[in-house]
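Example 4.3 (complexes with small molecules)
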Amino acid sequence: AKALGGDRLHWFDPAMDELAAESARLGSDLEQALRRGEMFLLYQPIVELPSHRPAGVEALLRWRHPDRGLVSPDVFIPIAERSGLILELGRWVLESACRQAALWQQRYGTDAPAKVSINVSARQLAEPGFVAEVEDILRRTGVDRSRLLLEITETAVLDPGPALAAVRELRDRKLRIALDDFGTGQSSLSLLLHCPVDVLKVDKSFVSGTAATSDAGAVIVENLIGFTTGLHLEAVAEGVETAEQAERLSAAGYRLAQGYLFSRPVPAEIIEAQLTGVLAK
Ligand code: C2E
Ligand code: CA
Ligand code: CA
Ligand code: CA
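Answer. The structure with calcium ion bound is encoded below.
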């Protein structure tokens, strides 16, 4: 912590200092993580309602730290974003997920319900050359762009700038874009006026979190669907944990959902076993 003098010294807090040191240690470990093979992807199914048949998967990054075990992306992604390491990590995620998607495409053909959603951070989107990098990865992996969905967050495209320009260019190039954590930001609705997307992922706080336990949460989720239909957007309800939630969402008109009720994030082999199970039926 810094000695600022005067009253401002009062914010000096050993707990905060410890937190900063901890995050600095993690940050330097993170720099080695890719090279040491500590990063891997899990995939969580996105299913159709009411059938629960798989419609796609979301790739979710995991870090197995040699001493600490699994570190949550909610911890290491912000650290990687601050240091800029997210650019390297994000490229690795994009390439690995596309390679996996290409493999599923080869094995199971175009009927296989294996659309792959990939999280793209604001820093990546704003980086000059991001669109060219995506095109390069598509070419090298051979994955069909119609099988991908790039998930972006509202903060990335709040203001006009390179990230917003990248989103527009990606859509012009027939790549589909999802707005993640929809409803949690400051200006989710007005954002749609200047940032065209294909899919809204309705945040889990409205579905299973605190808001859902209130009447307001339920009203919002149920009314958002009419709004997305009117705008020709697809909606995915996130964080579905109970059969009752799934039934209510389905009755409200949701056709796609994701959550622990259907599956936790799992390794690619498990997804594949589920796919072959479905295809065998
Ligand atoms: P997200 O993109 O909103 O991903 C959904 C998160 O919700 C995942 O957490 C998932 O495991 C969790 N989840 C799914 N179903 C349920 C449910 O029914 N209940 C509850 N309580 N949670 C559920 P995860 O994997 O820990 O990831 C956390 C966040 O880290 C992600 O939120 C995303 O913002 C970020 N992240 C993960 N992987 C990547 C990546 O490859 N790149 C970037 N830029 N960010 C990533
Ligand atoms: Ca996401
Ligand atoms: Ca989300
Ligand atoms: Ca989230």
